[in-house]
Amino acid sequence: MSDTRTNSGVDNISVFRKSFTWSVPGERVITIMTAGNLATTQAVISQLEERNKAPSERRPSILEEPTMFQVATHVGNLLRGVIEGRQSGPVQGEGARFTATMIVAGQIRDMEPRLFMIYPEGNFIEASFDTPFFQIGETKYGRPILLRGYDKGMDFEQAVKLLMVSFDSTVAANLSVGLPFDLTVIARDQFEPLHQRRIRADDPYFNAISSSWSEALRNAFHQLPDYRFD
Amino acid sequence: MSDTRTNSGVDNISVFRKSFTWSVPGERVITIMTAGNLATTQAVISQLEERNKAPSERRPSILEEPTMFQVATHVGNLLRGVIEGRQSGPVQGEGARFTATMIVAGQIRDMEPRLFMIYPEGNFIEASFDTPFFQIGETKYGRPILLRGYDKGMDFEQAVKLLMVSFDSTVAANLSVGLPFDLTVIARDQFEPLHQRRIRADDPYFNAISSSWSEALRNAFHQLPDYRFD
């Protein structure tokens, strides 16, 4: 799940998609989510889609890499290349501003589903049994509920509910994160998204979560043992 | 409330008090909390206590400033001076590393209680009806529950309970925040702390909050409406 808000200052806010999915039905499905400098992440996505070529000549290489590991390597190399290209350009010393991070998720037929987090340096780490999820971007406000609420036995619908609560906490605390959200659920051995939706500001489910979570938190708080000065 | 953990890397963790209280019973009470570079904040506190003088000659000026505004101005000037002193010293370009932020709270007789947040630049803002509390340091993990749980009608004991929950979320997410915590409660027109305590790792109340909050959050989460894919 990703938000869509980008800003260069609170007086310059725009909506841009930060989640991208490619699939070859029956063969592979890949989702990439992005955080950080928008020009950097758009440049990477454009190169992945080979938008510099005529439409008839485009054969996105992530659809041809033999393994998800090689997909992640490819995305990492592109990301590092874009950031380095800007760092060595005519405007010096601005490298840090063009940084970005990505999450790459997907599965190729006859192999396991894989989930990677890619750093600006182009290297990456993979999710594991002990660390089953990643966050990028504005991670902190929404993290406590993920740490407390996540459970490996959750089904997809419960996991989406948890994401809604986590994003709600972030949106309440930071103006630079905002609706609409993009949601993509990938199930094992389906090779196309199980579920995809854009959650807009008027989404009744998200708004129900947001208001009932405030209430539920307050009730939970009141049930805790009280502190006494004596 | 403040934690006591300082670190220069996870392999170099120490316990230092970050909360300091001075009072002249019946006349004034002042508490200062610190976040940021420890050498900077210790230098400010040492100067406030005039530790460069013989004990018999110390007359800490914050105990003589006529108003809390002047106390905040004095602390701000000291803080800025310490940071600038380091920036212009023999090791150049390290200014950003020596930054620090402070909260100054207190009351002087015949005046209102005041609460200030002091920036590394030495200027400060004051709490108000609309913004009744401040956080410094690692603020984000613990902020959502403060935003949702805080209520101007709370008594001091409820507010302490809320702080325990907020600190618990932060401790669970960030190794660089840790027990013991220092707690100081200042009530109007008392001119000495109403309540002061160090909360240690074996504190039964904090541990009860920590474990029952996990449970309460999960229950609250399960009470929310479920997401459905159809």
From TrEMBL, chains A, B:
Gene Ontology biological process terms from the UniProt entry: proteolysis
Q: Mention any one GO cellular component term assigned to this protein in its UniProt record.
A: proteasome complex
* Gene3D superfamilies, alphabetized: Glutamine Phosphoribosylpyrophosphate, subunit 1, domain 1
User: Which InterPro entries does this one have?
Assistant: Ntn_hydrolases_N (IPR029055), Proteasome_sua/b (IPR001353), UCP009120_prtse (IPR016545)
Output the Gene Ontology terms for molecular function.
peptidase activity
Q: Which keywords label this protein?
A: Hydrolase, Protease, Proteasome
Q: Name one Pfam family in it.
A: Proteasome
User: SUPFAM superfamilies of this UniProt entry?
Assistant: N-terminal nucleophile aminohydrolases (Ntn hydrolases)
Q: What is this protein called?
A: Proteasome-type protease
Q: Which organism is it from?
A: Novosphingobium capsulatum
